[in-house]
Fold this sequence. Notes:
This protein is of the alpha+beta class. It is 41% helix and 18% strand. It is built from six helices and eight strands.
Amino acid sequence: RVIKRVMEAQQTACLKICEDIKRGAPVDTGAYRDSIKVSKTFINQNRISTRIYSTMTLGQRATGEPNPTWEKITLAFIIEHGTRPHFITPREPDGVLRWFDDDGGIHFAKWVWHPGTVAVPHWSNAIIRNREYYAKTIRKAIGKGKWR
C-alpha cells in the first residue's frame, strides 16, 4: 500500500517538474518543448523510477527528420549545457554545406565557424526549484512527516 502511494506521489511530482521544465524551455516551433515527456512510474530492481526525458535529437531539430550523424545527441543536452565555438564541416570529404537564409537565399560553403550556443539550463533549474516540493510529496506518501 505504501509503495503504491509513493509511486503515485512520485508520478505527480515528476509531472509538476516536467511542466516547470517546459515553461523554461526555449521555443522556436514548439516541437522541442512538446518532446519533453514523463514516463509512467515503475519499479525496477527494487527502485521506484520515473523518467523525464526528451526524444528530440540535434539532427531532428535541424532537418525535421532523423539524421544519422546526430541521431544520438539529444537536443535537450545541447540546450541545457550550450556548446563552445566550433567548425562545422560536410559529412562527405568533398561535400559542401548548404543552408537557406531568412530571405530564402541559398548559401554554400566548405566549412563554417559556429560561434557556439549559450546554455539555457531549464532542466537543472526546474529540478532545483522543485526539490522541496518533491521531498514533501514523497514524505506525505510515506506518512512519516520527516526523513531522518
